[in-house]
Write a structure and sequence with these properties.
This protein has 48 residues and is mainly β. It has a two-stranded antiparallel sheet with strand order 1-2. Helices cover 0% and strands 12% of the residues. The protein is built from no helices and two strands. The chain has one domain.
Length: 48
C-alpha cells in the first residue's frame, strides 16, 4: 500500500487515475485548467 498523501489548503491536487462512472478512464491531469470536483467519502461501513 502506498503511503498516504497529506494535503493542506492551497496545495495542488495529486494525480488521480481512476475508473469513471460508466467504466471509462479518468485522469485528473486531463482536466488541467478546468474546474473539477473530486469527492472522497469514508470507507464503507465506517462512521462519518
Amino acid at each position: 500500500m502506498a503511503e498516504p498523501i497529506v494535503l493542506e489548503a492551497g496545495m495542488p491536487a495529486p494525480e488521480i487515475d481512476a475508473t469513471a462512472t460508466g467504466g471509462g478512464p479518468f485522469r485528473l491531469s486531463d482536466h488541467r485548467g478546468s474546474w473539477v470536483v473530486v469527492y472522497f467519502y469514508p470507507r464503507a461501513n465506517t462512521p462519518g
